[in-house]
Amino acid sequence: MLEDEFLPTYDVSDAVAVTVHADPQTTYAALMDVDLIELGRRRPLVGALGALRMLPELVAHIVHGEAGTAAPQHLRLRETAEMPMEGGGWALLGERPGEEIALGLVGKFWRPVIEYAPVAADAFRAFDEPGYAKTVYALAVREIGPGETLLSAVMRTAATDEPARRWFRRYWTFGVGPGAQVLATGLVEAARDAAEERAGTS
Fold first, then answer.
1. Which of 20, 44, 107, 193 could form a disulfide with 116 if both were Cys (CB 3.0 to 4.6 A apart)?
2. Residue 59: band (very low, low, confident or very high) from pLDDT cuts 50, 70, 90
3. How big is the chain by its Cα radius of gyration, in Å?
4. Closest by alpha carbon to 29, among 197, 201, 159?
5. Taking 70 as the threshold, does the pLDDT of residue 70 lie above it?
6. Residue 92: helix, strand or coil by DSSP?
7. Percent with pLDDT over 70 in the chain
8. For 88-119, how does the pLDDT look when each residue is reduced to its tens digit (9 = 90+)?
9. CA neighbor of 176 nearest in space, from 135, 125, 129, 127
10. Would you state the pLDDT for residue 40?
11. Among candidates 51, 26, 76, 73, which has minimal Cα distance to 187?
12. Which is it for the CA torsion 71, 158, 190, 148, positive or negative?
């Protein structure tokens, strides 16, 4: 799996999964088509949690009298790799089309305004600069029976040194962990519903 390829050892991990009454190809296509902006509108908690990552950066722009980046009208998983990280973007680590996709971030996530490290996919696994945490968000489909698919989302984070590990564990424990699970659950459930509608099984 891509999460094992890019982050085989980690400090914190969480996962969610749903059974989808559709074939893997239909499920993966539906996952890639989920509009994250629309998902946030339909599920206010998901939208609020997703916006929290960008809020400190927006406040910093306002305080310094700078113009912020306009929010996109639509946003899909692959498109997050085209956005700046401070604006909610991710690095595309890898994809096996029709099977799985992995996104990643390297940053000091516990800071009021997150400090990101721009790390390319081929350098992600080896990156070990002190003071950072590396996060992988991987989504995959797997056939579990005729017309049935397991759609899963795995979140893993590893710190690059002990001080960063302590900071990240506090950050994860005080609300971020449950919030990340809400976001992942919202995404896989939206993909499930769309896939089953396409397959005529909803």
1. 107
2. very low
3. 17
4. 197
5. no
6. strand
7. 82
8. 788 999 999 999 999 999 999 888 778 999 89
9. 135
10. 75
11. 76
12. positive
Residue matched to tokens 């094992």: 4
Exposure of 181 in the CB half-sphere (CA atoms within 13 A): 12
Residue 70: exposed, middle, or buried by beta-carbon count in 10 A (0-12, 13-18, 19+)? exposed
Burial class (CB in 10 A: 0-12, 13-18, 19+), 97: exposed
Cα(187)–Cα(202) distance, rounded to whole angstroms? 17
In the block, which residue shows the tokens 């339909």?
42
* pLDDT band at residue 158 using 50, 70 and 90 as cut-offs: very high
DSSP 105: E
Residue 139 near residue 201, CB atoms below 8 Å: no
pLDDT of residue 71: 59
165, burial (CB in 10 Å: exposed 0-12, middle 13-18, buried 19+): middle
Dihedral angle, C-alpha 54, 46, 119, 129, nearest 10 °: 80
Q: Rounded distance, CA 47 to CA 18, Å?
A: 21
Q: What is d(CA 178, CA 196) in angstroms, rounded to the nearest whole number?
A: 27
Span 52-65, average pLDDT:
42
104 neighbors 135 (Cβ within 8 angstroms):
yes
Structure tokens at 35: 């509009």
